[in-house]
Amino acid sequence: MNKNILRITQRIIDRSKASRAAYLDKIAGEKSTTVHRASLSCGNLAHGFAACGSDDKNTLRGVNHSDVAIVSAYNDMLSAHQPYQTYPEIIKAAVKETGGVAQFAGGVPAMCDGVTQGQPGMDLSLMSRDVIAMSTAVALSHNMFDGALMLGICDKIVPGLMIASMTFGHLPTVFVPAGPMPSGLPNKDKARVRQQYAKGEVGKEELLEAESASYHSAGTCTFFGTANSNQLVVEVMGLHLPGASFIAPNTQLREELTKAAARQVTRLTQQSGNYMPIGKMVDERSIVNAIVALLATGGSTNLTMHIIAFAKAAGIIINFQDFNDLSDAVPLLTRIYPNGHADINQFQEAGGMALLFKELIDAGLVHEDVETICGRGLTRYTQRPVLEDGKLVWIDGATSSGDDEIIATVEKPFSSHGGLQVMKGNLGISVLKTSSLREGSFVIKAPAVVFEDQHELDIAFNAGELEKDFIAVVRFQGPKARGMPELHKLTPPLGVLQDKGFKVALVTDGRMSGASGKVPAAIHLCPEALDGGLISKIKTGDMILLDGETGELTLLVEESELAKRENATFEVNGHHQGMGRELFGFMRRNLSSAETGACSLFDENFQGGL
């Protein structure tokens, strides 16, 4: 086992000692020695199975068989979640074969950042994670259930389901993916058309045609953004069946994996004699494994906040420095767009998760002896699922890369560094994704151009005012100010300027998309402008140093000058009204900093990480 990873893991264990112990005591107290519904009164139980058929009612009257909750993020607008439409009946039939019952416990909202990018609804995106966690809690609150199946894929859905799963940590829980859509227009071609549109070289019709050729079918978007990063992280934590993450939807293999996941959760319940609750299964080592895999693949920066949040729900305290130090210890092993040309299907064809597991395990970069839904040990995950005569079996996965431009080895990685750099300086602390940056773009010293909104940058770009070296400062985008919307619409104009030879970068207290790439972006800046962070004192023309090699982020203005300046004032200008934003004021005001998960759910009464 890599000594640095062991050291960081122990640091997290020591830091989390009190909160983790309190959490484990809590879930131990919620464990039942029999089925959970046994604690219900006759009236309670009658309500709980009133709509069931006679066979299921008879099963639920007894105490020998499990009742499994299905929680789903299905809706048919989101391509990634549309396949879930048929899952409940498949799951119910599979669980019935084991002698148990599965009930659809509740649906959770699922919004698409791809639809809301640059729109008012994006201001709700991050907060939707906490709504999903609370919605899942409502679904599981009836105390009918002995295990749970979580159906979710995209950006905030899986983290929200994870927070809730950790909160209900006494329940065995399995996550059930739906898989990526088939490859369409290559991502690099899509990005090229976006930049052509930003330059006025093509019109809206050409842009829509390119976007439609890229996003064209049911399934997850094929780039390595937050959705696919979620799937990778969940599998590395042992919450998926081995190799389940990137099997295409609407295939026989996908359906058999769904049935197998349904059966598997019944093998982990108290009634099975093999009780393994998710809160005990996921420990500090599992969390470190998740971060290592994210870094080794150059995954989404959004997971820096999400892992912190769901780890905290399990009493485990993670911070940005842990990500930084693990990044120093982990090599970059994959090139998947935006940090390469390949999409997630090509990654799968080159060896996929089984090969990634093998590389990480053989190099001692992950804790192999963790608990998973398949038992102890990650070695099981070096296998891949296949159908033999219509039956689901697992066979050994690839032992070498099918394409060394997509999956590298630990001995010859794409980079010795995991692709994430924590930035520190007088401006505060932020994160910078380095895995996609071009040579020569890691260090930028340039004057600031300050914006209060991403649309202001678009206006300045279209007016030709940004044909120069500069660092765009987009502030009042943090959790408490705006709910921390993604600023992915900034990527095409800044990319155009970079291609013209200008040195450009971004500093913001907001987020960038999981698809962010070649433009250096110091994001998630803490403290945010609304909390009085120094970003609120920056003026256009101030020099800023962004050094992605040393991790320095410094406003190069004399302290005496800064002392004279007032903090800029946040102009609400309707940002808290419309598209439902007025309903989220209570949540927005209570969001924590990005480094503590940008979460509204943890207060002094929370029994997880506090």
What this model shows, in words?
The structure is a single chain. With 610 residues, the chain is of the alpha/beta class. It folds into 3 domains: 360 residues, no CATH class; 34 residues, no CATH class; 177 residues, 3-Layer(bba) Sandwich (Glucose Oxidase, domain 1). 37% of the residues lie in helices and 14% in strands. An 8-stranded mixed sheet has the order 9-10-14-13-12-11-15-16. Helix 5 packs across helix 12, helix 8 packs parallel to helix 15 and helix 9 packs across helix 21. The mean pLDDT is 94. It comes from Cognaticolwellia beringensis. One of its GO terms (cellular component) is cytosol. Keywords: 4Fe-4S, Carbohydrate metabolism, Gluconate utilization, Iron, Iron-sulfur, Lyase, Metal-binding.
